[in-house]
Amino acid sequence: MSRGDGNRSTIAYAIAFLSLAGAFLAGCRDSEFDWLASSRHRSTGWIGEFKDDRFLAGREYWVYLPPGYDPLRRRYPVLYLHDGQVVFRRASGDPNSWGVDSACDSLILSGAMEPLIVVGITSGSTRFYDLTPKDVGPIEGGYATGGGNAYLSAIARDVKPLVDARFATLRDPAHTYIAGASLGGLISMYAGYAFGGTFGRVASLSGSFDTYFGADTLFQLARRGRPATLDRLYLDSGTVDDNLGEARFMRDIVLAHGFTEGASDFLYLEALGDQHGDYWFGRRMPLVLRFLAGSAAASAPTGRVAASAVH
User: Fold this and answer.
1) CATH (residue range 38-310)
2) What is the pTM of this model?
């Protein structure tokens, strides 16, 4: 290659780089740009609130970017979480929130987990409808059910493309995770089986695997076998006033149809003394994050585990 060819290649690369940088910075909100330009960018993640009319008539969602986020040099896995209003402590101000932002900051900076982007999708009056996979009629309180497929389709069709276009993401199922607690755990597990072409790693905390909420639809899918795209699966429950029996029932199904107890791609855990609530879900979040996004899933505790080994 001549010197002129080399110069032209260098110029072309520079133009492409500046074009990408310009497109990214044009999309930055002021607070995001300020964060990227500050020293805090290296030690603390950024959280922003978004809303788009294309997604469930303007449903809000929050996006967490990891410390050291560099869209010009790398792309990142994405974790989608339900009940986004209790996911990030810095956003909600609630001390009993899950604290996923703080957990991610700590795990990423310590090297225990690869950096990832987290999307927290808010819930509201349609929560029972959104997070149940089957219409079982109005449940106690008159809440409608059975909107799970529409809700997951909206995430895959509307939110994911928006996030992928706006941020530097890895877009394949192996790098797209989904997780939730209680009914969020139910719909996350369902997503792993019914939307395997979108979500490749799944976590369910204290999942509501009850036919009262239409869980039999999930049981039928799971008994057909593990989808080829379902890369990792996490399942847990507390042992005090929680969905322990339901978690054991779900565990037995997945172990009989594609997963192996003790394998690095499956983690089942009973957290001794943990109860059903946001405070307890948040205490287990660091373990969930390490399992989904860490490189050493096999090192996680499994089985009936004392709280000190989990939190």
Assistant:
1) 3.40.50.1820
2) 0.88
